[in-house]
């Protein structure tokens, strides 16, 4: 089967290019690279990630909702819990809509919204999840093996056994 080398960019439909560009540059430290009039390309130096913002003629101008078919959210990686806490403090200082850091089954999450209500998330995976990702990259697993391991892990958490 053919493969691919990674993700090249993400393109988001927005209602106001200037407002969205300010958010992604001021809050997340992207830099503007190209302006095509109805689309702008932003670049994040540290991660080398390109983000395109597009204002479509004839767009309905309504805020994004993850309840429509398509994008649910964009997941970004934080280095560690200290960085996640720093992001939460930054969002508070800048008035960014966010949900406080939550510890979930497979790590910590900090969810927030851009000006068009597009949900974004910073996450850090716990040691169990990081180990599983390493294993998944190295060998094939059957769906049954994966389901059994997840069920065993979740049961160990409910029973108070350290994960």
From TrEMBL:
Domain (VOC): residue spans on this chain: 6-125
Database matches in PROSITE patterns: VOC (PS51819)
Pfam families (alphabetical): Glyoxalase
Record's protein name: VOC domain-containing protein
Domain of life of the native organism: Bacteria
InterPro entries with a match to the protein in the record: Glyas_Bleomycin-R_OHBP_Dase, Glyas_Fos-R_dOase_dom, VOC_core
SUPFAM superfamilies attached to this UniProt entry: Glyoxalase/Bleomycin resistance protein/Dihydroxybiphenyl dioxygenase
